[in-house]
Structures are given as C-alpha cells and as structure tokens.
Amino acid sequence: MEYYNATARKTKQGLQVDTHSHGVHYLIYEPKNAGGTNTGMNPVELELSTLGAFLQATAKQLAADEGFQYDQMVIDLEGDLDPRGFMGNPDVRNGLQEIRINYQVKTTASAEECAKFMQQVEQQSPIMDNLRNGVKIVVGQVTTK
After folding, report:
1. Cβ neighbour number for residue 5 with a 10 Å cutoff
2. 55, 121 contact by CB (below 8 A)
3. What is the pTM of this model?
4. What is the pLDDT of residues 77-93, one digit of tens each?
5. How many CB atoms lie within 10 A of CB 30?
C-alpha cells in the first residue's frame, strides 16, 4: 500500500489556501464573484481537474497494458454545486450534485471500442472510485497553539 499526504494552510490573503505535498506548492483560491482574486483554481475546479488527471493517467497505463492506440485524449469535466447546501440549507446537498464527463479521443479505433476502453479506464481509476463509492475518512486530533 502506498501512503500519500498533503497539507493545506490558510494564507493571509483573503480566501487563498497554500497546499503542498512532497515539496510542491499549489495555491487554491476563489474566483472574484466568490470573494477571491481568481488567481488559482477553487477547490471544486481542482477536484474536477484531479479526476480528469487521474483518468488521463489511468488511460495511459491501461492503453499500454491493453494495446489500445490513441494519439490524444481531451477530457472535459463539468460539475454542479448548489451554494445553498454550502451555506447550511439542510434541504440541499453540500457537495456536487452531478459531474459530467465528455471524452474526445483521437484514435483509429471504432466508437464502440473506444467507449469500452473508457469504461475500463473509469472502472480502474482510483479517484473515480472515491467519488462513486466514497472513502472512509478518519478525523484525528484537533490541537491548539
């Protein structure tokens, strides 16, 4: 089993959060219409991007294993989030209500072969699995300084 970790630290700039893992930093921020400065992806956009990136990685590995040939793949992801849930409305889910994925694959394979391949990619993607099936979350200690 592999172990991963990340840290998220609120900066002094509005809604900006500095995240880092293995020495790589990424700033997460909100768009201007949500009180940010639009200088980074917001957490929902990052979640969609993470799903797309892992689908890409899974497709690359699976294509090599299965002999599926493609020259390029573009994955478009969209998600719906009702802010009323985030703001505490108990009648509205607090997370994404739906994620839509569209694949554009440059390949000589038939549409049926390509669709079958993408189903395999989705079945083997860990991030897709987390989103579809949830994951156990264990909250540890809360400390103060």
Report:
1. 7
2. yes
3. 0.91
4. 999 999 899 899 999 99
5. 21
